[in-house]
Amino acid sequence: MARKTSKKAEATKIFVLDTNVLMHDPSSLFRFEEHDIFLPIMTLEELDNHKKGMSEIARNARQVSRSLDELLSTAEDIEEGIPLDEPSKGLASGRLLLQTEAISSELPPALPTSKVDNQILAVVIHLQRRYPKRLVVLVSKDINMRIKARSLGLPAEDYFNDKVLEDTDLLYPGTRALPADFWETHGQGMESWKKDGKTYYRVTGPLCPDFLLNEFVYLEGESEFTALVKEAAGKKAVLETLVDYSHPKHAVWGIHARNREQNFALNLLMDPEIDFITLLGQAGTGKTLLTLAAGLTQVLETKRYAEIIMTRITVPVGEDIGFLPGTEEEKMAPWMGALEDNLEVLTRSEDSTGAFSGEWSKAATTDLIRSRIKVKSLNFMRGRTFLNKFLIIDEAQNLTPKQMKTLITRAGPGTKVICLGNIAQIDTPYLTEGSSGLTYVVDRFKGWNHSGHITLQRGERSRLADHAAEVL
């Protein structure tokens, strides 16, 4: 019996956690299943250094400290390790090991032992010698730390548990191209009917089980066809025809769709049944412009929402410019250049239609529009509830899954939430395309009957911007 246990112990790994893993995901202690976790004393020391303040990192550091305090208060023998089965509610069956002795291990002379990273590497070397039959792996979000470990012949990995997808090419695009013989294979016994100016088709065929609710399907060629999946059960599906927002008579605040994906996006943005929308796309695909146009129409014309609230995370691309004077709105103004640029386009398009004429009426229109758009900082979102608001989260790719949850759960009755972003432009340290909060919500919300997603493909900004996006 004893031999069986030791064989099982040999099969499980020992993961040595770097501080940044704990600060990135406070629940990472319970994410390593049957394997053991080892926390070096320097990891705890660094946690202590980061616990002050109101930032996300400080909050996470405090949460980890509380979790460790809870685990240690019930521990019988720290040296043998703390079983994680009960505290993790069955998620992890390994043990938590803490450094209970001074460890001095030979590091190459070029590495100063005063540096925290190098002391953690010394712990990994010590554990390798102590447990020669078990694999000891360093887990760190710090790329340089992993490079240093590998150059010393130590196994090192990124923390993958928060990654929704390994390859962002697999991310749900929100659209599906139908084969040319779609009607031949799915049109037998088809029912169709009209309701509220839209046509519905009930189709049966082999593709139907793959359809997701609110997924856009399209047929290219002479008999062009676009529709939205409204129901999908087994081999049957109901398709709903779309409003053609590319036609000037369906223009939204003077804006009409310039390509198929923009038309899909406007169908989602103008649908009162859709509460949550994610729009992905590179620079110039029209994410912000379409969203603001739809928001203004539904706030000022149809009065479906009380006002537009726009927010974004304040991560600078270059050097930070220091403290900014003024109120919350004034402080956020430099971050909201995209809002200003798009409002300029929208007020100009209203003017060019002849609806408003003269400088005075143009200024009055601009003031009216601005009075219905509130710019809020993410820092003050916790604990709020938004009723009947059109909430736009810009640059959402820079949010962690936890921040994304905090924001989306602010939505009260009658509120629509739209997340905009480009996962190729992440500025937050330790976030990647696979672990971004935007990727997380796209994956988790797909197939819900009150949410929709579109990846915008074509840039419509200018020929210069399109060419730059391709060649640079």
CATH architecture of the largest domain: 3-Layer(aba) Sandwich
DSSP helical segment count:
15
Secondary structure class reads alpha/beta
Low-confidence parts lasting 5 or more residues at pLDDT below 50?
Answer: 1-6, 316-321, 350-357
Main beta-sheet strand count, sense and barrel state: 6 strands, mixed
Mean pLDDT: 81
How many beta-strand segments?
A: 18
- What is the C-alpha radius of gyration, as a whole number of Å? 27 Å
CATH superfamily of the largest domain: P-loop containing nucleotide triphosphate hydrolases
As for the number of domains, it is 3
**Could you name the CATH class of the largest domain?**
Alpha Beta
State the end-to-end distance: 63 Å
CATH structural fold name of the largest domain: Rossmann fold
Strand content: 15-25%
Shape: globular
Strand order of the largest sheet: 3-4-2-1-5-6
Classify the helix fraction into a percent range: 25-40%
Task: Give your account of this protein's structure.
The chain is an alpha/beta fold and 472 residues long. It folds into three domains: 2-157, 5'-nuclease (Rossmann fold, 3-Layer(aba) Sandwich), CATH 3.40.50.1010; 168-241, Elongation Factor Tu (Ef-tu), domain 3, CATH 2.40.30; 255-471, P-loop containing nucleotide triphosphate hydrolases (Rossmann fold, 3-Layer(aba) Sandwich), CATH 3.40.50.300. 33% of the residues lie in helices and 19% in strands. It is built from 15 helices and 18 strands. The chain has helices at 2-11, 19-24, 41-49, 56-73, 116-130, 143-151, 182-186, 260-269, 287-301, 328-332, 337-352, 358-371, 401-408, 437-445, 463-471, and strands at 14-17, 36-39, 82-83, 95-98, 136-139, 156-157, 175-177, 191-195, 198-204, 216-219, 225-233, 236-241, 276-281, 307-312, 373-377, 389-394, 416-421, 451-456. The strands form three sheets. Strands 3-4-2-1-5-6 form a six-stranded mixed β-sheet. A six-stranded mixed β-sheet has the order 7-10-11-12-9-8. Strand 1 (14-17), helix 2 (19-24) and strand 2 form a beta-alpha-beta unit. Helix 3 (41-49) packs antiparallel against helix 5 (116-130) and helix 8 (260-269) runs parallel beside helix 9 (287-301). Residues 1-6, 316-321 and 350-357 have low confidence and may be disordered.
